[in-house]
Design goal:
Blueprint: H1 3-22, H2 37-40, H3 52-55, H4 67-73, E1 85-91, E2 94-98, H5 99-109, H6 117-122, E3 129-141, E4 144-161, E5 167-188, E6 193-212, H7 213-217, E7 226-231, E8 234-241, E9 248-255, E10 263-267, E11 277-287, E12 291-299, H8 310-313, E13 314-322, E14 326-333, E15 336-345, E16 348-358, E17 367-378
Antiparallel strand pairs: 1-3, 1-17, 2-3, 2-17, 3-4, 4-5, 5-6, 6-7, 6-8, 7-10, 8-9, 9-11, 11-12, 12-13, 13-14, 14-15, 15-16, 16-17
């Protein structure tokens, strides 16, 4: 893990605890009802990279993923197209921030902010605070790709714990990953069937915190929360052209084949293994001279490693692309709405929009709306 990324990770944890501590004096104030711990602590799926392009359409793409998205969603998709050279991605920095985090920052920096910071922070108890950053660079060929990825994700929830008499508690998770990926793919039967595999080498850092605020305030060395390690996950994918015309396709991806154990290098904290997950996707498209329309459906975590709820597994998306330069997306991610816009300006591409991540056990329990933007440079 690069020194710069570890410094950023530690900086975030320190400020998370500082913000949580500021809420510590509000335990007896009548702001909100106790939040069920089961709802508060629901896990998100483990993902090293999420495509901003896909997020605007329900995070769907198992059946059509191409270019750098194929590396992480379905490596078989790298065999699509003609010729040898697909492109070079010089950089693609992407930022995610939850709507409540945006609101909290606005409240804290507003000239009209209440002089009582504790009161300001208390308004956000029970709302997840999410910040994420990622970047991908790499060489993309038809049938092969070499990539470099970095991602950081922080989630913080201050909630009233019913098991502690309604006193505030803080649940915080931070994941930081950097590494290299290598992907191979090929087509068979006239490219009616494509198979691919990605092998990666990642350095991972992780910090977890789930304690009462009084205990959080007593922490003096946040470095003790971190664990560091390395992992080499393998992802396999298959993609099928159902008509031979490329307008209907089916995709299957096995992420982290057999579970990818993280070999711990240092640190007092634990580092979770990357659990195997199976995703299935379907896509249908129609084209005219002026536009292309596409409908996609993904069924994520088909074997129920992370969740058994059907609606959390279901992802639905749609896309309209006008020519080669402008497009709009929309869909449902885990039962919540999402939408996006993208424009491709030759060496630059910009994606922006929002999506909804469900942190509860089923849709509607603890929905977290998040904004995203990415600027990609390449040729």
């Amino acid at each position: 893990m690069g020194i710069r990324h570890l410094w950023i990770a530690r900086f975030r944890v320190r400020h998370v605890l500082a913000a949580a501590a500021l809420c510590g004096g509000t335990a007896l104030l009548p702001f909100g009802e106790p939040v069920s711990a089961d709802i508060a602590l629901a896990d998100e799926f483990q993902r090293v990279y999420r495509s901003p392009y896909f997020l605007g359409r329900g995070d769907t793409g198992v059946a059509v993923a191409d270019d750098e998205d194929a590396i992480f969603y379905n490596p078989a998709g790298l065999a699509q197209g003609k010729g040898i050279f697909k492109g070079v991605v010089l950089g693609s920095p992407a930022l995610e921030i939850s709507s409540d985090t945006r609101s909290l920052i606005s409240d804290l920096t507003s000239p009209q902010q209440d002089s009582n910071m504790i009161k300001t922070l208390t308004k956000h108890i029970g709302d997840n605070q999410h910040i994420g950053f990622s970047n991908f660079s790499g060489l993309l060929l038809r049938r092969a790709a070499l990539g470099f990825v970095t991602s950081n994700e922080t989630n913080v929830l201050v909630y009233k714990d019913p098991n502690q008499g309604g006193l505030e508690a803080v649940n915080a998770n931070l994941f930081s990953t950097s590494g290299v990926t290598f992907t191979l793919a090929d087509g068979f039967y006239g490219d009616r069937m494509m198979l691919g595999a990605t092998i990666a080498y990642y350095k991972r850092a992780q910090a977890k915190l789930d304690v009462g605020l009084l205990e959080a305030q007593s922490l003096r060395n946040t470095d003790d929360l971190f664990g560091y390690g390395t992992a080499s996950p393998v992802t396999l994918g298959a993609m099928f052209d159902l008509t031979g015309k490329g307008d209907k396709s089916l995709g299957i991806t096995v992420h982290n084949l057999g579970d990818a154990t993280v070999s711990k290098d240092s640190g007092s904290g634990s580092v979770d293994k990357l659990r195997q997950r199976i995703d299935i996707g379907y896509a249908s498209s129609t084209s005219s001279k002026a536009a292309t329309a596409r409908v996609l459906v993904d069924y994520v975590d088909a074997t129920g490693v992370y969740t058994t709820n059907f609606y959390k597994k279901l992802h639905i998306g749609g896309e309209i692309k006008l020519g080669q330069r402008l497009g709009a997306t929309a869909g449902l991610n885990q039962g919540g709405p999402c939408a996006g816009l993208f424009t491709d300006l030759w060496i630059f591409r910009v994606d922006g929009g929002y999506y909804t991540e469900e942190l509860g056990d089923k849709p509607g329990l603890r929905s977290d709306m998040r904004y995203f933007i990415r600027i990609k440079a390449g040729f």
